[in-house]
Write a structure and sequence with these properties.
The complex is a heterodimer of chains A (221) and B (370). Chain A has 221 residues and is mainly α. Chain A has helices at 3-21, 25-31, 37-63, 70-83, 86-96, 101-106, 111-124, 132-158, 166-174, 176-186, 196-216. Chain B has helices at residues 23-27, 38-45, 64-77, 103-111, 127-140, 165-170, 178-184, 241-246, 256-275, 294-306, 320-323, 330-339; strands at residues 5-12, 18-19, 49-50, 88-93, 117-122, 146-153, 190-197, 207-216, 225-226, 229-230, 233-234, 253-254, 286-289, 316-317, 349-356, 361-369. Classes of the chains: A mainly alpha (221), B alpha/beta (370).
């Protein structure tokens, strides 16, 4: 598969995912302009339990990359450094709207987050797990295409300040470079590995499905 | 299935082209005030001329069925076919002239054809492709040897002040919301027709239909371009038509937020056809895309470029800017101009694309010049 073929596959997975997300009850409520403060709290609590693992699975994936792809390993590690404390932003947002820090820190993962997390660590533990680029495409895509809109909608509907929705707004503004890195990674030679293109698309598909599940399973712990 | 050919195309655009500065002389001014949205809308869609089936006083000059019949006659004049050869008529329109009977019946009546089989397709822009697909299958399966397909719209009559003012009075507003005004300066009137046969022309080029692929995404989208309901209530559920009008159930509106999300899914459908090898980018010589306004085109280009699926812009053909956005008639009117332009050569491939924002439908069709 050429990188263009992979991009086509990923865009197809993404659009299917993006349009299905709008049907998930919590997002549908946000789109309808009926979000309550308690919905935002719930979203932050549920989100934080997945985000806190993000840096860890990227680091695990980096450690599974062998010396032939040292450049990519650097890129994974860099990515990990920029993301691994993001959960703190969610905690700050939560406290800023009147939540207790210990509540968000001690909340368990919902069943969807469990599934997503288990899949990520499983994939990250395989040798040279470049198919995780598919997972990154979906998760970075959320940051770039959805988070900003969600953040602004939450801010408007609940009359909050930008600092109180910083996690969502920040990602919308800072995930541009990640997409460029993605393009570079895709064209770095990994597609010469047998079936890697197909695997990237499949991993994207599974990640999208599990991410949606996580939002569907809000508070089902 | 037998091979099927589009052997003639016709277009009917009522009266004379109307320039941007003249639009409100035809469709009127809401509450007697010039639209404040007009300039930004026209800047966005870049349409320069359009045609209206209304005169300058807002009086209808043709029915949609008459325009469709005229387009069929126009196609017949240029064809190797006689009127009596047509045994199947597939009509498409967003809205016919009347609620009952069907639009196809009225076109059949206007054409005064002998008893034939008819079918009626009511959707928005993609109803054109639905009608074409039915005719393709009817002729291809030898149920008929010759079919006429029409697309006709008379949208401007619904853009006249009387369709909005009772609502504005009732809701104590002076001006129209942008989502409603947008369509007043985007859509216009006209009709197009195609004649299909189970054999190619003997004396001129033909367009062989290679495939037609239509997909609806109503499973994930609510209505985006809609008319006939207000606050979730269909117009017929109001106590009477006056109440429906006052509630704003009877005018056309467009939800831009939903529209933006649709663009990607249309692109995804197209990418899927590339993956299926139905579309091979380097083998396309002309792209007839009914993007409903210029801004949609720009959005699509960015996405296509990323996926290596961009068709060279020099191959894009449109007459949107000069003939207006005529909804389901557009693709016929576009193909008619391209077909008789002298630009086509045997062996070339034409990809036609008709997205529909109504509740998200996407139609693609591949033609080969024979």
């Amino acid at each position: 598969m050429k990188s263009e073929d992979v991009m086509r596959g990923l865009i197809k997975v993404w659009t299917d995912f993006e349009t299905k997300l709008d049907q998930v009850p919590i997002i549908d409520k946000l789109n309808r302009g009926k979000f309550r403060l308690e919905d935002y709290k719930t979203l932050l609590i549920n989100h934080r339990q997945q985000v806190i693992e993000g840096g860890r699975w990227i680091a695990r994936a980096a450690s599974s990359i062998d010396e032939h792809y040292a450049e990519l390993r650097s890129q994974f590690l860099q990515h990990c450094i920029t993301e691994h404390k993001d959960y703190k932003m969610l905690e700050k947002n939560y406290v800023s709207i009147g939540g207790k820090l210990e509540d968000i820190q001690n909340a368990p993962k919902n069943t969807g987050s469990e599934a997503l997390n288990a899949f990520m660590f499983h994939k990250a533990s395989q040798p040279n797990p470049f198919d995780m680029l598919g997972a990154m495409f979906i998760i970075e895509g959320l940051g770039q295409n959805k988070a900003g809109g969600w953040g602004r909608a939450i801010m408007e509907q609940l009359d909050l300040s930008q600092e109180q929705v910083s996690f969502y707004i920040y990602h919308a503004e800072h995930d541009d470079e990640h997409m460029e890195e993605f393009d570079e990674a895709l064209n770095s030679g990994i597609l010469e590995i047998e079936n890697m293109g197909e695997q990237i698309i499949k991993t994207a598909k599974i990640t999208a499905r599990l991410y949606q599940l996580q939002l569907e399973e809000i508070d089902n712990v | 299935m037998k091979e099927v050919f589009i052997n003639a195309l016709g277009a009917f655009l009522p009266s004379n082209p109307v320039k941007n500065t003249d639009i409100e002389n035809y469709i009127g001014k809401i509450n007697n005030q010039r639209s404040r949205n007009k300039a930004i809308i026209l800047k966005r869609n870049k349409i320069k001329n359009r045609y209206y089936a209304l005169d300058k006083n807002g009086n209808p000059q043709y029915s949609s069925a008459e325009m469709a019949a005229n387009a069929v006659k126009h196609a017949l004049q240029k064809s190797e076919i006689n009127m009596k050869d047509i045994s199947y008529l597939a009509a498409s329109s967003t809205l016919g002239d009347v609620l009952v009977p069907g639009h196809a019946s009225n076109i059949h009546g206007a054409l005064k054809l002998a008893p034939i089989e008819i079918a009626n397709f009511q959707s928005v822009c993609a109803s054109s492709i639905m009608a074409l697909k039915s005719a393709w299958l009817q002729v291809g399966s030898s149920e008929h040897n010759c079919a006429a397909v029409t697309g006709s719209e008379f949208a401007s009559r619904y853009f006249r002040p009387g369709f909005y003012e009772p609502y504005l009075t009732e809701t104590k507003q002076q001006t129209l919301p942008f989502e409603a005004d947008f369509l007043r300066f985007t859509l216009s009137d006209g009709a197009g027709a195609a004649l299909l046969e189970n054999k190619p022309n003997e004396r001129q080029l033909s367009l062989k239909i290679k495939w037609i692929d239509i997909r609806s995404y109503a499973d994930r989208f609510d209505a985006c371009m809609s008319a006939g309901e207000a606050n979730g209530k269909p117009w017929g559920n109001f106590n009477n038509p006056i109440e429906a009008t006052q509630s704003g159930a009877l005018f056309l509106k467009q939800d831009f937020k939903i529209l933006n999300n649709m663009i990607k899914i249309w692109v995804a459908h197209y990418l899927d056809l590339i993956d299926q090898r139905k579309i091979e980018i380097d083998k396309i010589d002309h792209l007839c895309s009914h993007y409903s306004s210029h801004s949609l085109r720009e959005e699509a280009i960015t996405l296509l470029d990323k996926a290596g699926a961009l068709i060279d812009e020099q191959k894009w053909f449109t007459n949107l800017y000069e003939k207006g956005n005529t909804g389901t008639a557009s693709i016929f009117i576009m193909l008619e101009e391209l077909f008789y332009s002298g630009k086509l050569e045997r062996g070339q491939n034409i990809l036609c694309h008709v997205p529909e924002s109504g509740r998200c439908v996407n139609g693609l069709m591949m033609l080969e010049v024979i």
